[in-house]
Structures are given as structure tokens and as C-alpha cells.
Amino acid sequence: DTEVTQTPKHLVMGMTNKKSLKCEQHMGHRAMYWYKQKAKKPPELMFVYSYEKLSINESVPSRFSPECPNSSLLNLHLHALQPEDSALYLCASSQPRRGGVVGELFFGEGSRLTVL
Amino acid sequence: AQKVTQAQTEISVVEKEDVTLDCVYETRDTTYYLFWYKQPPSGELVFLIRRNSFDEQNEISGRYSWNFQKSTSSFNFTITASQVVDSAVYFCALSEVDTNAGKSTFGDGTTLTVKP
């Protein structure tokens, strides 16, 4: 079983809806990430939180709004999305870089989003 | 800038065959990390191995083995006696030390199909 839990697994929303994706991990990791993955493509980094602070925003449109309420939770708030935003949204966690050591990513199963 | 190339888009083998997935990378850094991840149809990326640039020892884990060659900037992955459960998309990724794992650059992935 994955140690990173994402809900919902599937989401269908209209372009005027507001919805949220949720991610939870209990491995004590202090870095959490959102990735977007289109079919037959590699994951694309969207946001990185390190110690609950946003450290990287890869020029993501403002209709995607991340939130990290605490060290275990990560949300992605969605508003006024476009059909091209339909994709698999993956959450991941890791230990932050420390002493020159880069940790591996632990991924959730993803939330498959369809925007109509 | 860093780059990861997985030249094989799709590979199909029959069960029990050995198969090698190629990964070639580019980086200007002398210190970096390489990763392999497996993405089965369920969607979750599963970490397989991490290797830092100073450790060129090859590694074997059961039917899996990895060959890291700095001289050719390659980090190839071999599955011995493949099984149907090995069918998945495999991603090679590179992280430079001055970033955290979330800034990994992923290759485009290789889709492996193992037929019974």
C-alpha cells in the first residue's frame, strides 16, 4: 500500500467549479510536491513545499492554488480550470535535501481529473 | 541544464526474456543523483533505485540490475527473466545536488510490455 494517500481518485468538474485535491503522508517527510502528468508523458513539477513553505512554483497558472496546512497535508485548490488541465495529478513527498543528499520521491496513486 | 534521454519509447518482450532499458543523461554538475521509477497502470510511481554520481558500483536487487557508467553518462536498467508484472512505464530521473528531489528531470519513459 502506498504511504502517500490522495483523494479523490477521480474527479470530474466543469470549468466554473471549485474543487480541491488532497494529499496526506505520515512518513515524517518535510518536502511535498504536486506534479501534473498527461498521458504517455513524464510527470511535470508544479509546486514544491519545503517545511510547509512554498519553495518552488513552476510558473503554474493561478487557477491552481496549493496549500500546505501542516507537515502531513497538501492540498491543491482548483478553480476555473480549462479542458486542457485534464490530467493525472500526482502528489509526492521526500526528505528535503540535507548535507548534499537528495532523497527519493514517494508518490501517491494520483487524482485523475477531467475538466468538461 | 540537465537532460535525460530514454531513447526506447516502447519495448515488448515475452516472459522470461531479459530486457535492458537505456538511460542517458546530461548535466554540468559533478555531483548529482540518478533514479529509476516504475509506473504501473494504477498510476503511482514507485521508487526503484537511487545512485549518486560518486558511486559507480553496479547494483543488483533480485531480478533487477543497474549499470552506471559515468564515462558514457548512462544509467541502464536490466530486468532478468522478465515477468508479466514487470509491465509498466519506467522513468529514469536526474537531480542535481543544489536542488531537492522535486526538481528531478525525468526522461520521457519507456513502456515495457511483457507478454505471457
What does this protein look like?
The complex is a heterodimer of chains A (116) and B (116). The relative contact order of chain A is 0.33. In chain A, strand 7 and strand 8 (73-79) form a beta hairpin. Chain A is 0% helix and 55% strand. With 116 residues, chain A is mainly β. Chain A contains no helices and eleven strands. Chain B is an all-beta fold. Helix content of chain B is 0%, strand content 53%. Chain B contains no helices and twelve strands. Chain B has strands at 3-5, 10-14, 19-21, 24-26, 32-39, 46-52, 59-61, 64-69, 74-79, 88-96, 105-106, 110-115. In chain B, strands 2, 5, 6, 10, 11 and 12 form a six-stranded mixed beta sheet that branches. Chain B has a four-stranded antiparallel beta sheet with strand order 3-9-8-7, with no helix packed on it. A two-stranded antiparallel sheet of chain B has the order 1-4. The model of chain B has no long low-confidence stretch (mean pLDDT 92). Chains A and B meet through strand 5, strand 9 and strand 10 of A and strand 5 and strand 6 of B.
